[in-house]
Design a protein that fits this description.
The protein is mainly α. The protein contains ten helices and no strands.
Length: about 170
Amino acid sequence: MSTDYKQACSEYDKGNYAVAYERFYALAMDEDASSQLNIANMLLHGIGSKKDVEKAYVWYKKAADNHDSEAQYIYGWYCIKEGKEKEGITYLARSGDGGYADAVCDLAGFFLRGLHTCEPDMNKAMTLFEQAAFMGKKEALGGLFYTKRMQEGQLKTIVYFLENIFNLVKGPN
């Protein structure tokens, strides 16, 4: 984390939003993904700048394309809501690959139910729910239990959970 980024965060924390916006903006123009995400959030909510939802999503996309997992998640959902489902799924998948557990869990639900251009695939859903659960996403446990039970039966599912409960509840190190 650069000194300039820390200073921008400090200004934000002090409530000097216009100054923070200017500092984040300068960093964002130099392709700093975290600053791009901050600019997007500030524009979306009108913090330190005039609220501009359209411009906010331009910045979310820039941050997403610079490998920010949270921005990929936000932009992916934006695409889905705008009817660009394939693009949205691509960004959600990138977010999940980057370690964003919410994206993995959401994708699992899409494959479970056959939503947003995802064909129903119980095996893929189960794998994704398991991945999200091991990433610490507690909400994935219900989906994991359901898909395992449907695929492997009640007894094998109970044995699986007994063998893995500590790691599933503990989440990532």
